[in-house]
Protein backbone atom coordinates (compact mmCIF):
# COMPACT_ATOMS: atom_id res chain seq x y z
CA UNK A 1 0.00 0.00 0.00
CA UNK A 2 1.71 3.14 -1.13
CA UNK A 3 -1.24 5.52 -1.11
CA UNK A 4 -2.53 6.24 2.38
CA UNK A 5 -4.93 9.07 1.55
CA UNK A 6 -6.86 9.13 -1.68
CA UNK A 7 -9.38 11.93 -2.23
CA UNK A 8 -11.35 12.22 -5.45
CA UNK A 9 -13.86 14.88 -6.44
CA UNK A 10 -14.65 15.79 -2.85
CA UNK A 11 -17.39 18.41 -2.46
CA UNK A 12 -18.45 19.71 0.89
CA UNK A 13 -20.75 22.49 2.00
CA UNK A 14 -22.08 23.90 5.25
CA UNK A 15 -25.75 24.71 5.78
CA UNK A 16 -28.67 23.61 3.65
CA UNK A 17 -31.15 24.97 1.17
CA UNK A 18 -30.73 28.62 0.21
CA UNK A 19 -28.06 29.06 2.87
CA UNK A 20 -25.79 26.37 1.45
CA UNK A 21 -22.22 27.52 1.65
CA UNK A 22 -19.85 25.45 -0.45
CA UNK A 23 -16.50 25.05 1.29
CA UNK A 24 -14.66 22.44 -0.74
CA UNK A 25 -15.11 22.11 -4.46
CA UNK A 26 -14.04 19.07 -6.41
CA UNK A 27 -10.88 18.35 -4.45
CA UNK A 28 -8.66 15.58 -5.75
CA UNK A 29 -5.51 14.75 -3.82
CA UNK A 30 -3.57 11.66 -2.94
CA UNK A 31 -0.80 11.24 -0.42
CA UNK A 32 1.70 8.42 -0.45
CA UNK A 33 3.20 6.59 2.45
CA UNK A 34 5.82 8.69 4.22
CA UNK A 35 5.04 11.83 2.25
CA UNK A 36 4.89 15.21 3.95
CA UNK A 37 2.23 17.50 2.50
CA UNK A 38 1.55 21.04 3.67
CA UNK A 39 -1.76 22.72 2.99
CA UNK A 40 -1.65 26.48 3.06
CA UNK A 41 -4.12 29.15 2.17
CA UNK A 42 -5.87 32.17 3.64
CA UNK A 43 -8.40 31.85 6.43
CA UNK A 44 -11.72 30.56 5.21
CA UNK A 45 -10.18 28.68 2.32
CA UNK A 46 -11.49 25.40 3.71
CA UNK A 47 -8.18 23.83 4.67
CA UNK A 48 -9.17 22.99 8.25
CA UNK A 49 -12.48 21.56 7.06
CA UNK A 50 -10.54 19.40 4.65
CA UNK A 51 -8.37 18.15 7.50
CA UNK A 52 -11.36 17.24 9.67
CA UNK A 53 -12.89 15.22 6.82
CA UNK A 54 -9.63 13.33 6.27
CA UNK A 55 -9.44 12.79 10.02
CA UNK A 56 -12.88 11.21 10.09
CA UNK A 57 -14.19 13.92 12.37
CA UNK A 58 -16.64 15.39 9.92
CA UNK A 59 -19.02 13.53 7.64
CA UNK A 60 -18.83 14.33 3.92
CA UNK A 61 -21.38 13.06 1.40
CA UNK A 62 -20.10 13.69 -2.11
CA UNK A 63 -17.04 12.35 -3.85
CA UNK A 64 -14.61 9.79 -2.50
CA UNK A 65 -12.35 9.94 0.56
CA UNK A 66 -10.29 6.84 1.14
CA UNK A 67 -8.07 6.80 4.20
CA UNK A 68 -6.02 3.67 4.81
CA UNK A 69 -8.28 1.95 2.26
CA UNK A 70 -11.46 2.82 4.16
CA UNK A 71 -14.13 4.84 2.40
CA UNK A 72 -15.24 7.77 4.60
CA UNK A 73 -18.07 9.04 2.45
CA UNK A 74 -21.35 7.99 4.06
CA UNK A 75 -19.53 5.68 6.42
CA UNK A 76 -20.49 4.65 9.92
CA UNK A 77 -18.97 6.15 13.05
CA UNK A 78 -17.45 2.77 13.86
CA UNK A 79 -15.39 2.66 10.69
CA UNK A 80 -14.12 6.15 11.32
CA UNK A 81 -13.26 5.45 14.95
CA UNK A 82 -11.21 2.43 13.97
CA UNK A 83 -9.32 4.48 11.36
CA UNK A 84 -8.88 7.35 13.78
CA UNK A 85 -7.06 5.02 16.12
CA UNK A 86 -4.41 4.63 13.41
CA UNK A 87 -3.99 8.37 12.92
CA UNK A 88 -1.91 10.71 15.03
CA UNK A 89 -3.35 14.15 15.72
CA UNK A 90 -1.52 17.33 16.57
CA UNK A 91 -3.59 20.39 17.37
CA UNK A 92 -2.99 24.08 17.45
CA UNK A 93 -3.42 23.90 21.21
CA UNK A 94 -1.55 21.01 22.74
CA UNK A 95 -4.74 19.75 24.50
CA UNK A 96 -2.82 17.60 26.91
CA UNK A 97 -4.63 16.37 30.00
CA UNK A 98 -3.61 18.73 32.77
CA UNK A 99 -3.94 16.12 35.47
CA UNK A 100 -1.58 13.66 33.83
CA UNK A 101 2.21 13.67 33.56
CA UNK A 102 3.87 13.85 30.15
CA UNK A 103 4.41 10.10 30.27
CA UNK A 104 0.80 9.36 31.19
CA UNK A 105 -0.43 11.69 28.47
CA UNK A 106 1.59 9.87 25.83
CA UNK A 107 0.40 6.52 27.24
CA UNK A 108 -3.20 7.54 26.58
CA UNK A 109 -2.63 6.73 22.91
CA UNK A 110 -1.49 3.22 23.76
CA UNK A 111 -4.30 2.52 26.20
CA UNK A 112 -6.70 2.19 23.30
CA UNK A 113 -4.95 -0.81 21.82
CA UNK A 114 -4.84 -4.25 23.30
CA UNK A 115 -1.96 -6.47 24.06
CA UNK A 116 0.48 -4.19 25.83
CA UNK A 117 1.35 -4.49 29.48
CA UNK A 118 1.56 -1.45 31.70
CA UNK A 119 5.35 -1.72 31.60
CA UNK A 120 5.45 -1.92 27.81
CA UNK A 121 3.24 1.14 27.55
CA UNK A 122 5.51 3.04 29.91
CA UNK A 123 8.62 1.99 28.03
CA UNK A 124 7.26 2.92 24.62
CA UNK A 125 5.92 6.24 25.89
CA UNK A 126 9.23 7.02 27.52
CA UNK A 127 11.02 6.18 24.26
CA UNK A 128 8.75 8.52 22.36
CA UNK A 129 9.41 11.32 24.84
CA UNK A 130 13.15 10.70 24.70
CA UNK A 131 12.91 10.90 20.91
CA UNK A 132 11.40 14.38 21.16
CA UNK A 133 14.09 15.40 23.64
CA UNK A 134 12.01 15.30 26.80
CA UNK A 135 13.65 12.32 28.46
CA UNK A 136 14.22 14.37 31.58
CA UNK A 137 10.63 15.63 31.78
CA UNK A 138 8.73 12.33 31.89
CA UNK A 139 6.94 13.00 35.16
CA UNK A 140 6.25 16.69 34.63
CA UNK A 141 2.67 17.80 34.34
CA UNK A 142 1.61 20.20 31.54
CA UNK A 143 1.56 23.10 33.98
CA UNK A 144 5.28 22.71 34.53
CA UNK A 145 6.28 22.65 30.83
CA UNK A 146 6.85 25.43 28.31
CA UNK A 147 4.81 25.89 25.13
CA UNK A 148 7.47 24.30 22.94
CA UNK A 149 7.86 21.38 25.31
CA UNK A 150 4.10 20.86 25.40
CA UNK A 151 3.90 20.72 21.64
CA UNK A 152 6.73 18.20 21.64
CA UNK A 153 4.79 16.07 24.13
CA UNK A 154 1.82 16.15 21.79
CA UNK A 155 4.11 15.13 18.91
CA UNK A 156 5.25 12.20 21.03
CA UNK A 157 1.63 11.38 21.79
CA UNK A 158 0.77 11.42 18.08
CA UNK A 159 3.76 9.26 17.12
CA UNK A 160 3.84 6.71 19.91
CA UNK A 161 1.05 4.62 18.40
CA UNK A 162 3.12 4.26 15.21
CA UNK A 163 0.38 5.73 13.05
CA UNK A 164 0.50 5.62 9.29
CA UNK A 165 -0.74 9.19 9.03
CA UNK A 166 -0.27 12.29 11.14
CA UNK A 167 -2.73 15.15 10.80
CA UNK A 168 -1.52 18.45 12.17
CA UNK A 169 -3.44 21.68 12.40
CA UNK A 170 -1.30 24.80 12.75
CA UNK A 171 1.11 23.09 15.14
CA UNK A 172 3.34 26.17 15.24
CA UNK A 173 0.63 28.76 15.75
CA UNK A 174 1.09 29.10 19.49
CA UNK A 175 4.91 28.86 19.37
CA UNK A 176 7.65 31.37 18.68
CA UNK A 177 9.70 31.01 15.50
CA UNK A 178 12.54 29.09 17.06
CA UNK A 179 10.55 26.48 18.96
CA UNK A 180 7.97 26.24 16.18
CA UNK A 181 10.62 25.37 13.65
CA UNK A 182 12.28 22.94 16.01
CA UNK A 183 8.98 21.19 16.63
CA UNK A 184 8.15 20.64 12.96
CA UNK A 185 11.70 19.63 12.08
CA UNK A 186 11.51 17.06 14.81
CA UNK A 187 8.16 15.91 13.50
CA UNK A 188 9.62 15.58 10.02
CA UNK A 189 12.68 13.63 11.16
CA UNK A 190 10.62 11.17 13.22
CA UNK A 191 8.00 10.77 10.52
CA UNK A 192 10.62 10.02 7.91
CA UNK A 193 12.20 7.40 10.15
CA UNK A 194 8.91 5.56 10.53
CA UNK A 195 7.58 6.20 7.00
CA UNK A 196 4.61 8.12 8.38
CA UNK A 197 2.70 10.43 6.04
CA UNK A 198 2.02 13.92 7.35
CA UNK A 199 -0.77 16.23 6.31
CA UNK A 200 -0.10 19.59 7.90
CA UNK A 201 -2.29 22.68 7.68
CA UNK A 202 -0.49 25.95 8.30
CA UNK A 203 -0.15 29.50 7.25
CA UNK A 204 3.23 29.74 8.79
CA UNK A 205 5.41 30.26 5.68
CA UNK A 206 8.58 29.79 7.73
CA UNK A 207 8.09 26.06 7.82
CA UNK A 208 7.22 25.42 4.17
CA UNK A 209 10.68 23.98 3.53
CA UNK A 210 10.01 20.83 5.53
CA UNK A 211 7.37 19.71 3.02
CA UNK A 212 7.74 17.28 0.16
CA UNK A 213 4.82 19.02 -1.45
CA UNK A 214 2.82 22.17 -0.74
CA UNK A 215 -0.84 22.38 -1.67
CA UNK A 216 -2.42 25.79 -1.78
CA UNK A 217 -6.11 26.02 -1.17
CA UNK A 218 -8.18 29.06 -1.99
CA UNK A 219 -11.95 29.31 -1.74
CA UNK A 220 -12.24 25.56 -1.59
CA UNK A 221 -10.26 24.92 -4.74
CA UNK A 222 -6.73 23.57 -5.04
CA UNK A 223 -4.63 26.21 -6.72
CA UNK A 224 -1.36 24.42 -7.13
CA UNK A 225 -0.23 20.95 -6.36
CA UNK B 1 -9.95 -3.85 25.17
CA UNK B 2 -10.51 -6.66 27.59
CA UNK B 3 -12.97 -6.52 30.44
CA UNK B 4 -10.55 -5.28 33.08
CA UNK B 5 -9.17 -2.38 31.09
CA UNK B 6 -12.67 -1.60 29.83
CA UNK B 7 -13.42 -0.11 33.20
CA UNK B 8 -9.97 0.24 34.72
CA UNK B 9 -8.58 2.82 32.27
CA UNK B 10 -11.45 5.34 32.45
CA UNK B 11 -11.65 4.80 36.22
CA UNK B 12 -7.93 5.47 36.57
CA UNK B 13 -8.18 8.63 34.50
CA UNK B 14 -11.20 9.71 36.56
CA UNK B 15 -9.19 9.16 39.73
CA UNK B 16 -6.19 11.09 38.41
CA UNK B 17 -8.40 13.98 37.40
CA UNK B 18 -10.11 14.01 40.78
CA UNK B 19 -6.93 14.10 42.83
CA UNK B 20 -5.33 16.67 40.52
CA UNK B 21 -7.45 19.53 41.79
CA UNK B 22 -7.42 18.98 45.54
CA UNK B 23 -9.49 22.01 46.50
CA UNK B 24 -12.27 21.09 44.12
CA UNK B 25 -12.12 17.51 45.32
CA UNK B 26 -12.44 18.73 48.90
CA UNK B 27 -15.50 20.77 47.97
CA UNK B 28 -17.06 17.79 46.23
CA UNK B 29 -16.36 15.52 49.18
CA UNK B 30 -17.91 18.08 51.52
CA UNK B 31 -21.05 18.06 49.38
CA UNK B 32 -21.39 14.29 49.52
CA UNK B 33 -20.45 14.29 53.20
CA UNK B 34 -23.16 16.81 53.92
CA UNK B 35 -25.80 14.73 52.15
CA UNK B 36 -24.49 11.63 53.87
CA UNK B 37 -24.70 13.13 57.37
CA UNK B 38 -28.13 14.55 56.66
CA UNK B 39 -29.46 11.17 55.54
CA UNK B 40 -27.77 9.37 58.43
CA UNK B 41 -29.27 11.75 60.97
CA UNK B 42 -32.75 11.64 59.49
CA UNK B 43 -32.75 7.86 59.39
CA UNK B 44 -31.18 7.73 62.83
CA UNK B 45 -33.84 9.95 64.36
CA UNK B 46 -36.56 7.99 62.62
CA UNK B 47 -35.28 4.63 63.84
CA UNK B 48 -34.67 6.07 67.26
CA UNK B 49 -38.22 7.32 67.32
CA UNK B 50 -39.55 3.90 66.49
CA UNK B 51 -37.19 2.21 68.90
CA UNK B 52 -38.05 4.55 71.76
CA UNK B 53 -41.74 4.38 70.95
CA UNK B 54 -41.48 0.70 71.59
CA UNK B 55 -39.19 0.98 74.60
CA UNK B 56 -42.04 0.62 77.10
CA UNK B 57 -43.77 -2.37 75.47
CA UNK B 58 -40.37 -3.99 74.97
CA UNK B 59 -39.92 -4.08 78.74
CA UNK B 60 -43.31 -5.66 79.32
CA UNK B 61 -43.37 -9.37 79.84
CA UNK B 62 -46.54 -11.09 78.68
CA UNK B 63 -47.96 -13.21 75.90
CA UNK B 64 -51.09 -11.24 75.05
CA UNK B 65 -52.04 -7.63 75.68
CA UNK B 66 -55.46 -6.02 75.84
CA UNK B 67 -56.14 -2.42 74.93
CA UNK B 68 -59.28 -0.47 74.22
CA UNK B 69 -59.96 -0.27 70.52
CA UNK B 70 -60.05 3.51 70.78
CA UNK B 71 -56.53 3.66 72.20
CA UNK B 72 -54.29 5.17 69.58
CA UNK B 73 -51.13 4.27 71.42
CA UNK B 74 -49.98 3.35 74.90
CA UNK B 75 -49.21 6.91 75.85
CA UNK B 76 -52.81 8.09 75.32
CA UNK B 77 -54.92 5.15 76.45
CA UNK B 78 -58.68 4.84 76.76
CA UNK B 79 -59.75 2.98 79.88
CA UNK B 80 -61.81 -0.17 79.93
CA UNK B 81 -63.32 -2.26 82.72
CA UNK B 82 -61.10 -4.49 84.78
CA UNK B 83 -63.88 -7.07 84.66
CA UNK B 84 -63.35 -7.30 80.92
CA UNK B 85 -59.77 -8.37 81.54
CA UNK B 86 -60.81 -10.86 84.21
CA UNK B 87 -63.08 -12.62 81.73
CA UNK B 88 -60.02 -13.99 79.95
CA UNK B 89 -59.30 -16.14 82.99
CA UNK B 90 -62.14 -18.30 81.77
CA UNK B 91 -59.92 -19.53 78.97
CA UNK B 92 -58.03 -22.64 80.12
CA UNK B 93 -54.82 -21.53 78.39
CA UNK B 94 -54.60 -18.32 80.41
CA UNK B 95 -52.44 -18.56 83.50
CA UNK B 96 -52.49 -15.00 84.78
CA UNK B 97 -54.03 -11.66 83.84
CA UNK B 98 -52.87 -8.37 85.33
CA UNK B 99 -54.01 -4.81 84.79
CA UNK B 100 -51.61 -2.02 83.91
CA UNK B 101 -52.43 1.59 84.73
CA UNK B 102 -50.90 4.38 82.70
CA UNK B 103 -50.96 8.11 83.28
CA UNK B 104 -49.05 11.25 82.37
CA UNK B 105 -48.31 13.48 85.33
CA UNK B 106 -45.99 16.34 86.29
CA UNK B 107 -42.96 15.30 88.30
CA UNK B 108 -41.17 17.84 90.48
CA UNK B 109 -37.43 18.07 90.06
CA UNK B 110 -36.08 17.68 93.58
CA UNK B 111 -33.26 20.12 92.98
CA UNK B 112 -34.89 22.89 90.95
CA UNK B 113 -38.54 22.33 91.89
CA UNK B 114 -39.43 22.59 88.20
CA UNK B 115 -42.24 20.31 87.10
CA UNK B 116 -42.11 18.26 83.96
CA UNK B 117 -44.46 15.64 82.64
CA UNK B 118 -43.53 11.98 82.68
CA UNK B 119 -45.24 8.65 82.32
CA UNK B 120 -46.44 6.81 85.43
CA UNK B 121 -46.92 3.04 85.26
CA UNK B 122 -49.02 1.40 87.94
CA UNK B 123 -48.94 -2.36 88.35
CA UNK B 124 -49.54 -5.05 90.91
CA UNK B 125 -46.15 -5.58 92.57
CA UNK B 126 -46.96 -9.24 92.99
CA UNK B 127 -47.13 -9.68 89.23
CA UNK B 128 -44.05 -10.00 87.06
CA UNK B 129 -45.21 -7.96 84.10
CA UNK B 130 -42.09 -5.78 83.89
CA UNK B 131 -39.08 -7.50 82.48
CA UNK B 132 -36.72 -5.14 84.31
CA UNK B 133 -34.36 -6.54 86.93
CA UNK B 134 -34.46 -3.53 89.25
CA UNK B 135 -38.25 -3.58 89.29
CA UNK B 136 -38.33 -7.25 90.21
CA UNK B 137 -35.84 -6.68 93.03
CA UNK B 138 -37.68 -3.71 94.50
CA UNK B 139 -41.08 -5.34 94.77
CA UNK B 140 -40.96 -5.20 98.57
CA UNK B 141 -40.32 -1.46 98.58
CA UNK B 142 -43.07 -0.86 96.02
CA UNK B 143 -45.63 -2.42 98.32
CA UNK B 144 -45.08 0.42 100.78
CA UNK B 145 -47.27 3.48 100.67
CA UNK B 146 -46.25 6.36 98.41
CA UNK B 147 -43.20 4.73 96.86
CA UNK B 148 -42.04 4.89 93.24
CA UNK B 149 -39.11 3.75 91.11
CA UNK B 150 -37.55 6.26 88.75
CA UNK B 151 -36.23 5.57 85.23
CA UNK B 152 -32.55 6.39 85.20
CA UNK B 153 -32.73 6.94 81.42
CA UNK B 154 -35.20 9.78 81.82
CA UNK B 155 -34.10 13.16 80.50
CA UNK B 156 -31.75 15.05 82.84
CA UNK B 157 -34.32 17.82 83.35
CA UNK B 158 -35.94 15.66 86.03
CA UNK B 159 -32.83 16.03 88.15
CA UNK B 160 -29.71 13.99 88.88
CA UNK B 161 -31.70 11.29 90.60
CA UNK B 162 -28.81 8.94 91.32
CA UNK B 163 -26.82 11.58 93.22
CA UNK B 164 -29.94 12.78 94.98
CA UNK B 165 -30.79 9.28 96.13
CA UNK B 166 -27.25 8.77 97.38
CA UNK B 167 -27.68 11.98 99.36
CA UNK B 168 -30.96 10.63 100.76
CA UNK B 169 -32.99 13.33 99.07
CA UNK B 170 -35.73 11.12 97.73
CA UNK B 171 -38.94 12.98 98.46
CA UNK B 172 -40.71 14.69 95.58
CA UNK B 173 -44.15 15.23 94.13
CA UNK B 174 -45.94 13.57 91.26
CA UNK B 175 -49.22 15.16 90.28
CA UNK B 176 -48.86 17.29 93.47
CA UNK B 177 -48.81 14.12 95.56
CA UNK B 178 -45.82 13.48 97.80
CA UNK B 179 -43.89 10.30 97.01
CA UNK B 180 -40.61 8.66 97.97
CA UNK B 181 -38.26 7.54 95.21
CA UNK B 182 -37.06 4.15 96.40
CA UNK B 183 -34.74 3.27 93.57
CA UNK B 184 -33.84 3.43 89.91
CA UNK B 185 -34.49 1.25 86.90
CA UNK B 186 -33.65 1.54 83.23
CA UNK B 187 -36.24 1.79 80.47
CA UNK B 188 -35.64 4.77 78.15
CA UNK B 189 -37.53 7.84 76.98
CA UNK B 190 -39.88 8.09 74.04
CA UNK B 191 -41.30 10.94 72.01
CA UNK B 192 -44.41 10.82 74.18
CA UNK B 193 -42.75 10.94 77.58
CA UNK B 194 -39.46 12.42 78.73
CA UNK B 195 -39.26 10.13 81.70
CA UNK B 196 -40.84 7.15 83.40
CA UNK B 197 -41.87 6.20 86.90
CA UNK B 198 -43.12 2.81 88.03
CA UNK B 199 -45.28 2.41 91.09
CA UNK B 200 -47.76 -0.02 92.59
CA UNK B 201 -51.39 0.00 91.55
CA UNK B 202 -52.41 1.27 94.98
CA UNK B 203 -49.94 4.13 94.87
CA UNK B 204 -51.07 4.89 91.33
CA UNK B 205 -54.59 5.50 92.65
CA UNK B 206 -53.14 7.83 95.30
CA UNK B 207 -51.20 9.81 92.71
CA UNK B 208 -54.24 9.96 90.43
CA UNK B 209 -57.17 10.37 92.86
CA UNK B 210 -59.71 10.44 90.05
CA UNK B 211 -58.71 7.02 88.80
CA UNK B 212 -60.09 3.83 90.29
CA UNK B 213 -59.17 0.20 90.28
CA UNK B 214 -62.00 -0.79 88.04
CA UNK B 215 -60.86 1.19 85.00
CA UNK B 216 -57.65 -0.10 83.52
CA UNK B 217 -55.51 1.07 80.59
CA UNK B 218 -53.98 -2.20 79.57
CA UNK B 219 -54.27 -5.85 80.34
CA UNK B 220 -51.24 -8.12 80.39
CA UNK B 221 -51.96 -11.82 79.97
CA UNK B 222 -49.60 -14.71 80.62
CA UNK B 223 -50.40 -18.07 79.13
CA UNK B 224 -49.64 -21.54 80.39
CA UNK B 225 -46.49 -23.08 79.09
CA UNK B 226 -46.90 -24.46 75.59
CA UNK B 227 -50.04 -22.55 74.69
CA UNK B 228 -50.08 -20.85 71.30
CA UNK B 229 -50.54 -17.08 71.64
CA UNK B 230 -52.06 -16.89 68.17
CA UNK B 231 -54.64 -19.54 68.89
CA UNK B 232 -55.60 -18.14 72.29
CA UNK B 233 -55.88 -14.72 70.74
CA UNK B 234 -58.40 -16.03 68.23
CA UNK B 235 -60.38 -17.71 70.99
CA UNK B 236 -60.39 -14.61 73.18
CA UNK B 237 -61.45 -12.47 70.29
CA UNK B 238 -64.74 -14.29 70.07
CA UNK B 239 -65.22 -14.29 73.83
CA UNK B 240 -64.44 -10.66 74.65
CA UNK B 241 -66.36 -7.53 73.79
CA UNK B 242 -65.61 -6.13 70.37
CA UNK B 243 -64.18 -2.87 71.71
CA UNK B 244 -61.14 -4.75 73.00
CA UNK B 245 -57.98 -5.05 70.90
CA UNK B 246 -55.88 -8.13 71.54
CA UNK B 247 -52.22 -8.02 70.60
CA UNK B 248 -49.42 -10.52 70.73
CA UNK B 249 -46.09 -9.12 71.90
CA UNK B 250 -44.88 -8.48 68.35
CA UNK B 251 -48.19 -6.96 67.32
CA UNK B 252 -48.05 -4.55 70.23
CA UNK B 253 -44.58 -3.39 69.20
CA UNK B 254 -45.77 -2.95 65.65
CA UNK B 255 -48.89 -1.11 66.77
CA UNK B 256 -46.79 1.38 68.73
CA UNK B 257 -44.32 1.83 65.86
CA UNK B 258 -47.04 2.28 63.28
CA UNK B 259 -48.63 4.95 65.40
CA UNK B 260 -45.51 7.08 65.18
CA UNK B 261 -44.83 6.18 61.58
CA UNK B 262 -48.31 6.79 60.20
CA UNK B 263 -50.78 8.33 62.61
CA UNK B 264 -48.32 10.90 63.83
CA UNK B 265 -46.78 12.77 60.86
CA UNK B 266 -43.29 12.24 62.26
CA UNK B 267 -42.47 9.32 60.01
CA UNK B 268 -43.28 11.47 57.01
CA UNK B 269 -41.20 14.37 58.27
CA UNK B 270 -38.08 12.28 58.57
CA UNK B 271 -38.76 10.59 55.25
CA UNK B 272 -39.04 13.99 53.66
CA UNK B 273 -35.81 15.13 55.27
CA UNK B 274 -34.06 12.08 53.87
CA UNK B 275 -35.26 12.82 50.37
CA UNK B 276 -34.21 16.45 50.69
CA UNK B 277 -30.73 15.36 51.71
CA UNK B 278 -30.62 13.19 48.61
CA UNK B 279 -31.68 16.06 46.37
CA UNK B 280 -29.21 18.54 47.85
CA UNK B 281 -26.38 16.06 47.48
CA UNK B 282 -27.51 15.29 43.95
CA UNK B 283 -27.35 18.94 42.94
CA UNK B 284 -23.89 19.38 44.46
CA UNK B 285 -22.44 16.27 42.82
CA UNK B 286 -24.10 17.15 39.53
CA UNK B 287 -22.55 20.61 39.63
CA UNK B 288 -19.12 19.17 40.31
CA UNK B 289 -19.36 16.58 37.53
CA UNK B 290 -20.87 19.05 35.10
CA UNK B 291 -18.20 21.71 35.56
CA UNK B 292 -15.57 19.00 35.44
CA UNK B 293 -16.77 17.88 32.02
CA UNK B 294 -17.03 21.49 30.86
CA UNK B 295 -13.46 22.18 32.00
CA UNK B 296 -12.13 19.09 30.27
CA UNK B 297 -14.14 19.62 27.12
CA UNK B 298 -11.11 20.20 24.88
CA UNK B 299 -9.17 17.36 26.39
CA UNK B 300 -12.06 14.97 25.93
CA UNK B 301 -12.56 16.15 22.35
CA UNK B 302 -8.89 15.46 21.69
CA UNK B 303 -9.20 11.97 23.08
CA UNK B 304 -12.28 11.44 20.95
CA UNK B 305 -10.35 12.51 17.86
CA UNK B 306 -7.65 10.01 18.79
CA UNK B 307 -10.29 7.30 18.67
CA UNK B 308 -11.71 7.10 22.18
CA UNK B 309 -15.38 6.24 22.08
CA UNK B 310 -18.26 7.98 23.80
CA UNK B 311 -18.70 5.04 26.17
CA UNK B 312 -15.23 5.62 27.57
CA UNK B 313 -16.24 9.04 28.81
CA UNK B 314 -19.55 7.77 30.18
CA UNK B 315 -17.58 5.24 32.21
CA UNK B 316 -15.22 8.02 33.24
CA UNK B 317 -18.07 10.14 34.57
CA UNK B 318 -19.63 7.23 36.45
CA UNK B 319 -16.27 6.28 37.90
CA UNK B 320 -15.90 9.87 39.14
CA UNK B 321 -19.38 9.67 40.64
CA UNK B 322 -18.47 6.39 42.33
CA UNK B 323 -15.24 7.77 43.78
CA UNK B 324 -17.06 10.84 45.10
CA UNK B 325 -19.67 8.61 46.69
CA UNK B 326 -17.03 6.52 48.45
CA UNK B 327 -14.82 9.46 49.41
CA UNK B 328 -17.77 11.40 50.78
CA UNK B 329 -19.33 8.43 52.52
CA UNK B 330 -16.31 7.49 54.62
CA UNK B 331 -15.94 10.82 56.48
CA UNK B 332 -19.72 11.15 56.46
CA UNK B 333 -20.00 7.81 58.21
CA UNK B 334 -17.36 8.71 60.79
CA UNK B 335 -18.96 12.07 61.49
CA UNK B 336 -22.40 10.48 61.78
CA UNK B 337 -21.02 7.91 64.16
CA UNK B 338 -19.86 10.77 66.39
CA UNK B 339 -23.20 12.53 66.12
CA UNK B 340 -25.06 9.32 66.94
CA UNK B 341 -22.91 8.94 70.00
CA UNK B 342 -23.58 12.55 70.94
CA UNK B 343 -27.31 12.06 70.52
CA UNK B 344 -27.25 8.96 72.69
CA UNK B 345 -25.25 10.59 75.46
CA UNK B 346 -26.82 14.06 75.37
CA UNK B 347 -30.39 13.47 74.24
CA UNK B 348 -30.86 10.02 75.72
CA UNK B 349 -32.22 8.68 72.47
CA UNK B 350 -31.30 5.19 71.35
CA UNK B 351 -29.33 5.68 68.12
CA UNK B 352 -27.44 2.53 67.26
CA UNK B 353 -25.29 2.50 64.10
CA UNK B 354 -26.35 -0.73 62.47
CA UNK B 355 -24.71 -2.45 59.52
CA UNK B 356 -28.01 -2.43 57.71
CA UNK B 357 -28.30 1.34 58.15
CA UNK B 358 -24.74 1.85 56.97
CA UNK B 359 -25.37 -0.19 53.83
CA UNK B 360 -28.70 1.52 53.22
CA UNK B 361 -27.15 4.97 53.44
CA UNK B 362 -24.22 3.98 51.23
CA UNK B 363 -26.58 2.67 48.54
CA UNK B 364 -28.60 5.83 48.94
CA UNK B 365 -25.52 8.02 48.43
CA UNK B 366 -24.36 5.84 45.55
CA UNK B 367 -27.73 6.16 43.82
CA UNK B 368 -27.49 9.91 44.33
CA UNK B 369 -24.07 10.05 42.65
CA UNK B 370 -25.13 7.75 39.81
CA UNK B 371 -28.16 9.95 39.20
CA UNK B 372 -25.90 13.02 39.14
CA UNK B 373 -23.69 11.18 36.65
CA UNK B 374 -26.68 10.36 34.46
CA UNK B 375 -27.62 14.02 34.37
CA UNK B 376 -24.06 15.16 33.73
CA UNK B 377 -23.21 12.87 30.80
CA UNK B 378 -25.43 14.94 28.53
CA UNK B 379 -22.71 17.56 28.79
CA UNK B 380 -20.29 15.13 27.09
CA UNK B 381 -22.01 15.81 23.79
CA UNK B 382 -20.35 19.23 23.84
CA UNK B 383 -16.97 17.62 23.36
CA UNK B 384 -16.97 17.50 19.59
CA UNK B 385 -13.60 16.66 18.08
CA UNK B 386 -14.42 18.47 14.81
CA UNK B 387 -14.43 21.73 16.77
CA UNK B 388 -10.89 21.17 17.89
CA UNK B 389 -9.34 22.24 14.60
Description:
With 225 residues, chain A is α/β, with parallel strands linked by helices. Chain A has a domain at 1-86 and 198-225: Rossmann fold (3-Layer(aba) Sandwich), CATH 3.40.50.300. Chain A has 6 helices and 10 strands. Chain A has helices spanning 47-54, 77-84, 102-110, 118-131, 147-159, 177-193, and strands at 3-14, 21-32, 36-40, 62-67, 70-71, 87-90, 165-169, 197-201, 213-218, 221-224. Chain A has a 6-stranded mixed beta sheet with strand order 6-7-8-3-9-10, sandwiched between helices. Chain A has a 4-stranded antiparallel beta sheet with strand order 2-1-4-5, with helices on one face. In chain A, helix 3 runs parallel beside helix 5. Chain A is globular and about 55 Å long. The model of chain A has no long low-confidence stretch (mean pLDDT 87). With 389 residues, chain B is of the alpha+beta class. Chain B folds into 2 domains: 3-53 and 266-388, no CATH class; 70-242, no CATH class. Chain B contains 14 helices and 11 strands. In chain B, the strands form 2 sheets. Chain B has a 9-stranded mixed beta sheet with strand order 6-7-5-8-4-3-10-1-11. A two-stranded antiparallel sheet of chain B has the order 2-9. In chain B, helix 2 (22-53) packs across helix 13 and helix 2 crosses helix 14. Chain B is elongated, with a radius of gyration of 29 Å. The model of chain B has no long low-confidence stretch (mean pLDDT 88). The chains are: A alpha/beta (225), B alpha+beta (389). At the A-B interface, helix 1, helix 2 and helix 3 of A face helix 1 and helix 12 of B.
